[in-house]
């Protein structure tokens, strides 16, 4: 791909990165567009397929060749899904859960990630090993004690229960640490010390702007993780107060175009996320670009 | 997860039968759409036989939660609304998890943690033995809780259904909802093309034994006129999971200890199923997998053993175009059961009396008849199964087959084999191994060894 | 310097972490030393390291270990290489860039359940898209479910599909953080574009690459939902356990066979395994980057 580019990469870090004005970054060649287009198609296809199978019965999907185009039956299936589960409430609940998880992760993990990346303190290596260590424990085995905790604090059935285990993530700390090691020049922090700035001020005015791309990425990942998680929420929530995945999982009532109804509902609850990222995508890209320009 | 999975799938499809099979059913009156009043009158005798629970429950407002999986169909059949009308102080809220495996994982976790359970919990057949063996102290004993009604209620159920949810010291932890008496579903058109008899009475005679069934299978496979690419049976598990319950023992000794290696049921079921697998009579389509689902409509197999609930599944998978192309005949080798559930009341419930009353009402004969006519769930209540609305039901989708009689006969002839807490795991280990005889050309002896290793791992490991 | 403040920074994280991460982690270690059934989790009887020695002589464990390794390799390696290439492409100025970036994260935004359902159809033996494509190359009727390598490949493509965009975005963020003057001086030194990529981009991405390698290794070692759902929800990973991973085995031990003690042992073994793999990764990465610098 590099062969397709003409401009030197050195210039690409101008502020104009977002709009890609002349003299900005390297431009993509035709071949790059071609490859990206293929990868994009592959990425989108399963979602499209969700739409297709959301508008056909199992029997129709079993035909050879299967139908490739969605139909108006999609809306019929969707309304059947709506009758069974309060999808709007589920969307609201999932938005709350995922947002709280994302915000809390960004906040706490950036703080800790910065400390691990640039501050020297006693026990930091041990603590970091601990963080990386828990990354490695599969969730399932910790579930009984976690559930007992949630029950003890009367969280079962409430959104808090779905949020609590995900408030922070070892992943986030690790991501921010790795990112800041590379992106945050130690001299900048030291210069801050010399100027007599408080750690908090250094954090706010030096670390935060530089950490923004990684924070944006972390926010997005944790939001989606919380949005799509189903093993734990099914345990602690129920469909009187469901998140999206809990509602989808409780769709199993009755009629035969079952798969179609579930797929229609799946499509319905996935679209808002994508639309949100369509808009936020710009912000995230913007964040990445700004962060790239040294604070 | 084998039985668990199937139950969900079953329930998934069941309600369509309401629309397609049962609604198209001609009852004894010969009408093509049953009137609500028919059901009412037909079951009035049943209603009297066991009157709804103790009116002595006080009238303070109470909200009952009921945790289920797949679809029990109570809500769809309008039973909650009806009950709340009868008891204005009661509000019913249902929790539903689609997959019974997920549901059971969650329920086990809640029981383990000692909190978070609903007032009523559905219990699937794959897990009832575990409840009986390990959670007897966490569920209400209906023999006590029903008080004076207990004997009446007990006598309305098939005895085997009642026994399966009872402990050896006489506690009964669940009231039966539906049952899964088995038959053989088949495609008359494919049979005809291969030169086999295709009417259900002849077949019932020809395959009264599994030997006869396998002979027909061999005839089918060697026929030059059978449709290309078509196999006689869907999966050797179709034979195994039916035949295993036709002996004295299935997977356990009478006191519920796993003992599958010495069981007559396993021995005969394995010999028939592995023969069918090795002879190429059976395809190796993973049951409930995508290729299996498609096969209902594309003719990749011509026969499949089918519990009552699977009619709905077949209807849904095959679609309207196959109306009248499937048929139902009695199962080879005698009666068997696959699937079915119970309702239990956890002792942790804060509204035990009200929950017991609701569970009793939901599983009473009158309601089981409604569940059959509207949701196609076959009754586990003998009284309900003998009700004309059930007993004389036929299915248009299944070529006019007298499904009420076929499944009713199977249910009434059923002998209960002992059950144990690892039946699901053992059955899955064995049917997996059977599948590999077809799909991976594993020799039957080697497959048996693999099954034993996996089953022993489940039991002891 | 800043030592006291550092504790304040890590404190909120560690307080929550102690309850939600550390406690279950240590509890699991404790459970692994007991015989305990999910049916009665409070009735634990001490068995010392019996569960561990049982595991290492157990056919199912060794099989799952092998499967986890092979699936891990054939999903992680292509996944990260493709992601690197994609990130490189996305780093160019191009039209519809936001659209491409959002589209790339789409697989990650799709739930595993929906994705696996779609892929199961694609890998359907009789009429699946995958067999249609291989048919064009003269290879017919691959049994994507029952054949060992085919099934592992199928699962690996699901994993790869879901995570390429995710890793690409992480790489992209990392690429943006590489100081531009490095490229400038490289250009002055007459470095070709490949050499820039090799000697500026790659070393600059080192912490990021290490991060994704570690995260992917951990993810691969814990792989669970994809093989579970690909096998229609059964925990055995196919008739011959041909795609049963360690995560799936643990689920089967704990939730199907109700042997919580053994499941916890498998979990801790997975953990120890990952520690070893991560150390190997770190070591290898150090070697590679040292060479590239030298």
Describe the 3D structure.
The complex is a heterotrimer of chains A (295), B (461) and C (294). With 295 residues, chain A is mainly alpha-helical. Chain A has two domains: 4-78, no CATH class; 87-250, MetI-like fold (Orthogonal Bundle). Chain A contains 13 helices and no strands. Chain A has helices at 30-53, 58-61, 73-84, 87-118, 124-135, 143-152, 159-163, 170-183, 186-194, 199-228, 231-236, 244-249, 258-292. With 461 residues, chain B is α/β, with parallel strands linked by helices. Chain B folds into two domains: 7-14 and 37-179 and 339-394, Periplasmic binding protein-like II (D-Maltodextrin-Binding Protein, domain 2), CATH 3.40.190.10; 181-337 and 415-460, Periplasmic binding protein-like II (D-Maltodextrin-Binding Protein, domain 2, 3-Layer(aba) Sandwich), CATH 3.40.190.10. Chain B has 23 helices and eight strands. In chain B, strands 1, 2, 3, 4, 5, 6, 7 and 8 form an eight-stranded mixed beta sheet that branches. In chain B, β1 (62-69), α4 and β2 form a beta-alpha-beta unit. Chain B is globular. Chain C has a two-stranded antiparallel ribbon. In chain C, α3 (59-90) packs parallel to α7 (148-176), α3 runs antiparallel to α10 and α4 crosses α7. The chains are: A mainly alpha (295), B alpha/beta (461), C mainly alpha (294). At the A-C interface, α1, α4, α5, α6 and α8 of A face α1, α3, α4, α5 and α7 of C.
Number of strands of chain A: 0
The top-level CATH class of the largest domain in chain A is: Mainly Alpha
Strand content of chain B: 5-15%
CATH topology of the largest domain in chain A: MetI-like fold
Termini gap of chain A? 30 Å
Main pleated-sheet profile of chain B: 8 strands, mixed
| CATH topology heading of the largest domain in chain B | D-Maltodextrin-Binding Protein, domain 2
**Could you spell the SSE succession of chain A in H and E letters?**
HHHHHHHHHHHHH
Number of separate helices of chain B: 23
Largest interface: A-C, 115 and 109 residues
Would you report the number of β strands of chain B? 8
Oligomer: heterotrimer
